[in-house]
Amino acid sequence: MSNTPPIRLSDLTNRIQQAINNVFAGQTYWIIADITNYSYYQQKGYHYFDLVEKQEGTAGIIAKVAAVAWGAGADKIKDFERITGQVFQNGINVLVKVSVNYHNQYGLQITVLDIDANFTIGLLEQQKQAVLARLLTENPEFIQKAGDQYITRNNRLALNCVIQQVAVVSSGNSAGYQDFKHTLDNNRFGYRFIIHPYFTAVQGEEKAELLQQRLIDIFNTGTPYDAVVIIRGGGAQTDFLIFDTYRLGKTVARFPIPIITGIGHQKNETVVDLMAHSPTKTPTKAAEFIIAHNKAFEDEVINLQKTILIKSQQLFSARSQSLSALNSMIVNQARTMLSRHKDQLQGYNQTVINTTQSILLSKHRELLTVSGQVLSKPTIMVAHKRNELENITANITSFNRMYFQNKRSELEHHKTVFRLMSPASILKRGFALVYQDGKVTANPDTIKPGSNIQVVLNSATLNATVTAKNETNGTAFDI
């Protein structure tokens, strides 16, 4: 056992308190830390939490101390929540003004005296600007910037004249979705909408992939939506970090259907708002935007109808006056022309009458002449034709008799020739027919010595065998 005499615990804590007070009494410090283990006692208005410092790039804690806020510090936390729209809770990074003290019963404590709302807002804004810069750098083909405006493939799309079929991305229990749908369904113009909900989580940076997938699902359906609406109810600024992610910003910028946002962010625009076709502040505003778009088209149609009606009336009035003037001119000129041509017609009428009488008289005389010729010529022609027929008849009778006499003489001559040329007549004159193998032959080339032949004479048939064959020149019977 040590020779140093023991002391009471209160003596030790008093010494610790005195030592800490000697160093930190009256001193305040601005520190950057994350909030963990947060709890709030509403009856007293006390906030208890730990301030931690994490190793950069990891979740490892390199420093941790208990902290409390009450009184003025609690009021500053209320102001922080009002200014930033961010609930004071676990996981947020803050810049706080603190004092260090030691209590004999409660030990070392850090008391929060103030909190810098601008630091938290600025930190979130830095993250957002970094995402925007990356989007511009990595996606120049569908994201550009002109002045303060971001030009994306999505916001260059033309909205249909009428927005009627709408895909809505929202959380299933969102009051914002109900507000949006109620505003559309109860619009005072009687417009009717087809709303297809695609429910998903819309809070938390880690849920950005889910929200992106819902957009992909909308595209894959092939449904010809007029617009896609992304909505969310109000909340703290950090609740909207999902809409400041690179993944979601890129998807919205290149999406082939116009996207309207109404995510309840009243103060600043998110990355998704900047990439989308038509950003609005709240779900209700998004619905009112769609209604106003359709109303603008209806007003344009109505104004066009009125313009057409007015122009038609003006055109009709102008043409009516022109037609009236033209009608008067036609009537007057017609009367003048009728009067001018009436005398000419009377002269023509008299000329026609006189000329007609002269022509009729001349034609009457011609008809009489022709009539006489018609009456006399047929008689003469009939007499001539009768004489011709009689001559033809006599000629036919004479020629017929001579023709048949000539033909009889020819027949007798042919009969005589046929008798002279008949085989019987030829055989009687001493000629013979030679048969070889049962067939008449006149070709000596087929008959050779030793061949059997038949020789047919006028009154007998001789069967013979050729013993010799002598060639002749065929001139023995020349006359």
From TrEMBL:
<dbReference type="InterPro" id="IPR003753">
    <property type="entry name" value="Exonuc_VII_L"/>
</dbReference>
<dbReference type="Pfam" id="PF13742">
    <property type="entry name" value="tRNA_anti_2"/>
</dbReference>
<dbReference type="GO" id="GO:0008855">
    <property type="term" value="F:exodeoxyribonuclease VII activity"/>
</dbReference>
<dbReference type="Pfam" id="PF02601">
    <property type="entry name" value="Exonuc_VII_L"/>
</dbReference>
<dbReference type="GO" id="GO:0005737">
    <property type="term" value="C:cytoplasm"/>
</dbReference>
<feature type="domain" description="OB-fold nucleic acid binding">
    <location>
        <begin position="8"/>
        <end position="115"/>
    </location>
</feature>
<comment type="similarity">
    <text>Belongs to the XseA family.</text>
</comment>
<dbReference type="InterPro" id="IPR025824">
    <property type="entry name" value="OB-fold_nuc-bd_dom"/>
</dbReference>
<keyword id="KW-0378">Hydrolase</keyword>
<keyword id="KW-0269">Exonuclease</keyword>
<protein>
    <recommendedName>
        <fullName>Exodeoxyribonuclease 7 large subunit</fullName>
        <ecNumber>3.1.11.6</ecNumber>
    </recommendedName>
</protein>
<dbReference type="GO" id="GO:0009318">
    <property type="term" value="C:exodeoxyribonuclease VII complex"/>
</dbReference>
<keyword id="KW-0963">Cytoplasm</keyword>
<dbReference type="GO" id="GO:0003676">
    <property type="term" value="F:nucleic acid binding"/>
</dbReference>
<dbReference type="GO" id="GO:0006308">
    <property type="term" value="P:DNA catabolic process"/>
</dbReference>
<feature type="domain" description="Exonuclease VII large subunit C-terminal">
    <location>
        <begin position="152"/>
        <end position="464"/>
    </location>
</feature>
<keyword id="KW-0540">Nuclease</keyword>
<dbReference type="InterPro" id="IPR020579">
    <property type="entry name" value="Exonuc_VII_lsu_C"/>
</dbReference>
